[in-house]
Design brief:
Elements: H1 4-10, E1 14-18, E2 24-27, H2 29-35, H3 39-42, H4 47-51, H5 69-72, E3 80-86, E4 92-103, E5 110-118, H6 156-166, H7 171-178, H8 182-196, H9 201-210
Antiparallel strand pairs: 1-2, 1-5, 3-4, 4-5
């Protein structure tokens, strides 16, 4: 099982982190591809200077002492919000941004991890048909065990898929590994995300790491 930092480096979602001074401390390759800014140009700089993000109506969002900065100090702030950023091709990207806090080493403050993912709906008619859960006895019933032996809110099948997601496996690969239909895997992932209150694979795995579900 990779560490959460290793997973963030591998994920297709853009992920970056800022410290208590709002300087970027982590920038994965997906961020570089999405925004056209390599890690060596982003890390160490103020996040508002690098991103220059705007709200969907065009107002400046990224600035020093933005509303997200309050979260790092334990204050109230948005956990998910919409943002416009300039993409690698120079065109405007409309993204959903989710916030996750992780403890800073040797510091009582937090590191604020930002997960960037595009708003999209990749549904087919097959996706709209509810798929039955696997019967108990075929790894689908009861409750699974997460990290450190904690009880997971997942069914055994959902826990299995969650752990494969944490290994960086795509839905297609998981479908082949488990011998189940791709639409069934997608439905399981949707159920997992609904249980955790998250919206992307990176956010799902980050939540699972933080709460010892894997």
């Amino acid at each position: 099982m990779p560490s959460i930092a290793e997973f963030f480096h591998q994920t297709v979602d853009g992920v970056f982190a800022v410290d208590g001074n709002q300087r970027i401390t982590f920038w994965n390759s997906a961020c570089g591809q999405l925004l056209g800014i390599p890690a060596e140009e982003a890390i160490g700089r103020p996040c508002d200077d690098v991103l220059a993000g705007r709200t969907l109506v065009g107002d400046r969002f990224c600035e020093k002492e933005c509303c997200v900065s309050r979260v790092i100090d334990g204050g109230e702030g948005p956990k998910t919000f919409k943002l416009q950023l300039r993409g690698a091709n120079g065109k405007t990207l409309k993204l959903s941004v989710s916030i996750i806090l992780v403890p800073s080493k040797g510091d009582e403050r937090w590191t604020c991890v930002h997960l960037l993912h595009r708003d999209h709906a990749e549904s087919t008619i097959e996706d709209l048909v509810p798929q039955p859960e696997a019967p108990s006895g075929s790894n689908g019933g009861g409750r699974a065990r997460g990290g450190n032996g904690t009880v997971s809110p997942m069914t055994p099948r959902q826990q299995e898929i969650l752990e494969l997601l944490a290994e960086g496996k795509s839905a297609t690969v998981i479908s082949h590994l488990l011998g189940i239909r791709l639409v069934t895997v997608r439905n399981h992932i949707q159920h997992i995300q609904a249980k955790l209150g998250v919206h992307s694979q990176a956010e799902t795995v980050a939540y699972a790491y933080r709460h010892n579900l894997i």
